[in-house]
Amino acid sequence: MLDFLRKTLVFSLAVLVGGCASLAASNPDALWEIVNGQCVPSEQTTGKPSVCTKVDLAKRYAVLKDIQGNTQFLLIPTDRVTGIESPLILKPDAPDYWVDAWDSRHYVSERAKVQLPDNQLGLEINSKFRRSQSQLHIHIDCVQPDIVAALAPYRDDVLNQWRPVTLDGQRYRVMRVADLSGENNPFRIVARDHPGSDEMAEQTIFVTGTGQTNKDGWLIVNSALNIEDGSGTAEPLLDHQCVIAKHG
């Protein structure tokens, strides 16, 4: 039985080799099968999260170490939720996935072996058309050093107002918010301007802190595939090599 479990673990992790990009070619349900088939049952029966880093049954999410990069983690719902286009993420009783993902950022610092300030840590979700998995997942990792610098001027912006910004050569907009829950949930903020599943399917969202700590709030960064010079993935704003931890 132990050998079987080891083989299952090796296979499950193998499909993650190369990160989410390789998952598309293997199995778009791989993340869901790992969380729902291994992590949740193990947490329920043994109190241990199996191959996941954490399973919170009450808050309905799991945290999984992505095999791409040393510091990248994924927050994955334990409910079946396809992605950014799902109406479930906008329901009044939907879990605060962004809050839970932000609260999980300490795993990145622990892997980096240095306490990273909040403006060097980021969260990201891809559009429907720039992801490989059919289960919602929020990337948690270090931020590219040049992106930290590019976003610094926005740390004192008036709350809840969009401003244009070019990042990594592509068109985004940025908003400072006081928190990540309720009406400031990044999904809800973006959905106000892009109602409906079809519109939301085009969106990508990136979240980071405004400074050393989040006392001055967070920055929500948004782009989309269906705008000129826009993007359906903000993942390039993250640094899966976490260079910033090595060089400060």
UniProtKB/TrEMBL annotation:
Entry keyword Cell division: no
Subcellular location: Cell membrane
Predominant location category: membrane
Segment forming the signal sequence: 1-24
A GO cellular component annotation in the UniProt record: plasma membrane
Enzyme class (EC, first level): hydrolase
Pathway in which the depicted protein is active: Lipid metabolism; Phospholipid metabolism; CDP-diacylglycerol degradation; phosphatidate from CDP-diacylglycerol: step 1/1
Keyword Cytoplasm: no
Keywords: Cell membrane, Hydrolase, Lipid biosynthesis, Lipid metabolism, Membrane, Phospholipid biosynthesis, Phospholipid metabolism, Signal, Transmembrane, Transmembrane helix
A GO biological process held by the record: phospholipid biosynthetic process
Superkingdom: Bacteria
Pfam family, one: CDH
InterPro entries cross-referenced by the UniProt entry: CDP-diacylglyc_Pase, HIT-like_sf
EC number: 3.6.1.26
Catalyzed reactions per annotation: a CDP-1,2-diacyl-sn-glycerol + H2O = a 1,2-diacyl-sn-glycero-3-phosphate + CMP + 2 H(+)
GO molecular function list: CDP-diacylglycerol diphosphatase activity
Bilayer topology annotation: Single-pass membrane protein
TM helices/strands, residue ranges: none
Family stated for the protein in its record: Belongs to the Cdh family.
UniProt-recorded name of the protein: CDP-diacylglycerol pyrophosphatase
